User: Fold this.
Amino acid sequence: MIEEIKLSSIVTLLIFGGMFLGGSSIQFMSLLLKRNSLYLQLFCGGLLVGLFAFELLPEVFSDFQMIGIFTGISIGIFIMFMMEIVLHKNTFQTRQTDTIYLLFVALFIHSIPTGISFGMSLQSGQIINYGLLIAFFLHHVPEGMVIMASMPFIKKKNKLFVTFCFMLSMVIGLNIFMGMNMRVDSIKLTTIMMGMTIGTIGYVTFYELLWKKAKYLSKEKVALAVVLGIVSIHFFLQLLPTHQ
Assistant:
């Protein structure tokens, strides 16, 4: 039990550190771009498209049943629709801040199957080494970038960014701990949760970050920013020990 708590805590800190590094890099990039948030949001949309193409979709198609995945996608999209309705009825929010809250929900959902699946894999004897820990750290750098890029107009955004990163890293750590202690095969639940991940993150990526933001720039500039994000995440993933 003590070792499981220790491992979960270490991974939680690494995830938080990766997200924080990603957010800090976006802050630096915003200075270079003279705070033009649209380019950064489209770039981060490209990062998410790349994660879909190079990592999430190949994993889903190879490891899970499609019926469960499509069920989860439907649930995820429904959750996003309901979230938008709630946000639009809230007079304290504006459409400019919708994206960050929808993104948080999507990443929160994504953290559940990610943490549980990894925790359960440790039961089968997966070895924890420095390469895997580095992968955990680096893998969450893009997530931190997307979170920070999605909150350019929010007051006290640095405080909100740290809060979101802390909450997401804690959720993953707790789910890793739960996964290590599960004695029941939860493949059906994991399948549906992975589908919900695709539905929610896909909604935020293609509708909130790309479709809505692309209206304000020329098609050439939009394509350049998105392709740059896709290419960047492709080469970034090659740095991960688990992709080599």
Remarks:
- The chain has one domain: 2-243.
- Residues 2-243 form one domain.
- The CA atoms of residues 97 and 151 lie 7 Å apart.
- Residues 2-32 form the longest helix (31 residues).
